[in-house]
Write a structure and sequence with these properties.
Layout lengths: L1 H10 L5 H50 L9 E3 L11 E6 L2 E12 L5 E10 L16 E9 L5
Antiparallel strand pairs: 1-3, 2-3, 3-4, 4-5
Length: 154
């Protein structure tokens, strides 16, 4: 055992400067790849959180609309949201140190006196990629349609 230790000190073999530089470049390239994957993962996670909140808002608005009596569901596009408990047609939510505005669009159609069709569309903007316009925004929106029957005609 003592012989091996003496032999290692006498030969003084190690890595050259070029070998160390090549190893550092390889490690740097691997670290940059891992950084990019991490950034994409975080971005995807944030998009999912924002989308999930949009789905919650859509469900909440639809539930409030379905609770309104049949006769009070006026036909057309709703711009006044006060009877639903909202002060405007935009809802703002804050999470993960960012604020997102969700635009709400409600349309009620009455194809017959028996039922009414309620359509709720919630749109949002993410990093300025799309404006929060539910009518034109296809990537960042949640749409829900429901049919309400007239209870008098049942």
């Amino acid at each position: 055992m003592l012989h091996k230790i003496r032999h290692a000190f006498i030969n003084k073999q190690g890595f050259t400067l070029v070998e160390i530089l090549i190893a550092m470049v390889i490690i740097l390239i691997a670290m940059l790849g891992m950084y990019k994957v991490t950034v994409l993962s975080i971005d995807g996670n944030v998009r999912n959180v924002i989308r999930n909140e949009g789905v919650k808002i859509t469900e909440e608005v639809m539930n409030r609309l379905r609770a309104i009596p049949f006769d009070e569901l006026t036909e057309g596009t709703w711009t006044d949201m006060t009877n639903l408990g909202y002060t405007a047609s935009t809802v703002t939510r804050t999470f993960r140190n960012m604020t997102v505005s969700y635009a709400i669009s409600i349309t009620v159609n009455a194809p017959s006196s028996e039922f009414k069709v309620i359509e709720v569309v919630v749109g949002w903007d993410y990093k300025g990629e799309n404006p929060p316009l539910p009518e034109t925004n296809k990537e960042f929106q949640q749409k829900m349609v429901s049919i309400v029957r007239n209870p008098v005609l049942l």
